[in-house]
Protein 1
Amino acid sequence: MPVVLYHPEYGAYAFDADHPFSPLRIEMVLDLLHEAGVPVELVAPESATQDELATVHDSAYLGAVADVSRSPADPRFEYGLGTQDNPMKAGMDLGAARIAGGTLTGARMIAEGKASKVLQMGGGLHHARAALASGFCLFNDLAIAIRDLTSRGLHVAYLDVDVHHGDGVQSIFFDDDHVLTLSLHESGEYLFPGSGWTHELGRGMGRGFKLNVPLEPFTEGDNYLEVLDMVAQPALEYFRPDVLVVQAGADAHFADPLADLLLTTQTYEALFRRILTYADRFSAGRLLLTLGGGYSLEATPRIWTILYLVLFGYPIFENLPAAWIERWRKELGPDPPRTLHDPPHPYETIPRREEINRHNRLMAQRLLDAVSMLWL
């Protein structure tokens, strides 16, 4: 059975009350599973130690995070601490370390044969750099976990389906041939962090192992899955990872307020089933999943609930429990969803659909043409 990692101290990683990166998202998922009568057994991980954080982050940066977490009124803008994206509150370093410890625990359980599939109910802080907080991310839990895996001689494929480019993970492993990164995201021409182009293929020994699929705004689900298969299957076939690590952000949903892709919950179900197939086919079933972005409280809890159900092989229930809707009515809005899946045709038809689809296919093919020369 898959292992699920969670600790209440994840909730200490909270920005301002109106900040989009809210711990309520995970609370809503766990509560929805409870109300639906779905079995949930949570394993509480330890926090990451300073030495473990230092496998990825500079010591000066770690000191600055600790200082600003004690004195939030004294920002350190040179480290991205106290900015509009990353406003600091007391104790945030402790919450971030607990989250990093959760993802690291999952990696170690897989490496040591204690689990083959692990869902980390948090994390996915893929924008943090070695010495910079960015995009709501203080510690790059994904990179810390991946580094532990590669330190054991394992090859890791990292798949990022968050709508924003996984720039922090890519940067940290840019010259590492033990790590394949593949990020599908809305094009940086339109969206933070403004990176993730097809020419970003890696450096040195890592060249050819860093893949980016920058999608046009208003990309719909069928085309998203088509392009994913175009790139992911040959990349994983070539790389043959020991472990597949996935950042399962939910912000490519059409209702997300911070981006412009048009995935539905039905798309996400198909996506999660594909990811399980990839793991079983290419990494002997070894799969570490984290959460990530997702800023529609109406959509994100439903998407991550679907992830949980698909991972465990439970039936996909459709009607949302009335008690859950009532409890979270403030967060769900005046017209809350009533079903786990979106209704048919939930948004207006996109006039440029075929043009967008052709662009994405051509972009994916150009990426494959470029990288195939490096795989010979």
Protein 2
Amino acid sequence: MARVLVTGVAPLPFENQRKNYALNNRTWLIAKALMEEGHQVCLLCLRVKGAYFDEERLDEILFQKIHANLSYYSLAREVFRPKLLNRHYRDFRPDCIVGAGTVPSSYAARIRTDKPMWADLFGSLLAEAQAKAAVYDDDFYPAFWRRLEIMTLKRADIFSTVSIPQKYAVIGELGLLGRLNKHTLNYDFVRVIPICLDDEPFSHSKIVLRNKLVHEDDFVILWCGGYNTWTDVETLFDGLVKAMAKNRKIKFVSTGGAIERHDEMTFSRFINKVKQSRFSEKFIFSGWIPTQDVGNYYLESDVGINVDRFSYEALLGARNRLNEMMKASLPIITTKIAEISGLVEKKELGITYPIGDSDALAGAILSLADDPARLKRYKENLANYSLQELSYKTLMHPLREWVKDPMVAPDFGKKVRSDHFSSLRKGQYLARQVSLILKKEGVKGVIRQAKKSIKGLTKS
């Protein structure tokens, strides 16, 4: 069995937390899959600020011995630094390193070691940076996040992505960095590990909606999680009010909201639209709720919704909320763009509609609100769909196999020429200089300059 150092993001799903993000789940399922294989795992997590209920009482470093072979450190941002990670590396002496997410992987890349490294690129950081730059009108984000991604791409020996499209994007990035070279011709750098589900089913522990926030016979559309930079709140709002105008039983319930220190503008735009609407009382905002209550909202709703604008993030990435809805057998209405939307359509687990088409979105809502038989059919399809196909035990297979015999990439430690463009520019500069000397002094001048250069090199 191997000793595996894992870097990721906290809090983990079983902790007492205010917010549960997709990468937190991914971190936990990676660690859990390796722990269950019998490997000794040291899990170092960057703690997301604002995700715990009582952060004032948290120390900078929290340690838990979760299992005999899993040690977990929740580290405040102030101490999640290469110096501390290197110290843990020296103390733990792992056989390999696994990064859960691009940012945690970029920190793992700075650990001073020649041990093999797997980087799980959980969605495209570069595409996400582009979406944030557009929302905040600031190209700082692509420039900053690009450095983190490059750091990871240069160091890791093998990668995983959440979709097949993202796999191809990463291969292109590796090529630009010179890693598609003579040493790696027959080497597959990238595996695909879609968003995974834990095997724990949702259970209804208490009533949270019916006869509390909505009437028993209302048709409840559920939004769950953050309103991120790629969320099309304009189409979401327009589609909802068009449907509400034709069916008074439709209610929109939202958990989650603004994503602190990442995107607080998208949700604000949506709220402002709702406040000015004649249907404002039909929009219920529960905010960020304890993780243990999320399942109750899924189980008491009629349909789950996801609305994306066009972005490369959506095209390359995934949607954790859709997987969670599928787990709860909650029929789905989603924009047709992310890879998982194709699964929803193919398996008849819900309805997909074109990007930016609020009429189609309203039509999808009404078709389910007005047709109980169709809604029931989708629920049955979801119940019969094998969630084993989405289980972490199935989907983490590539990572588990690699950790059994981790190896560095064929180009590790090799001198690989990756400065083609800078060499080209140098060549163009020299050609230009020769051309100028030819015009001024002729061939003799070029020869004279060449002799000076050679003499200078000899002296040095």
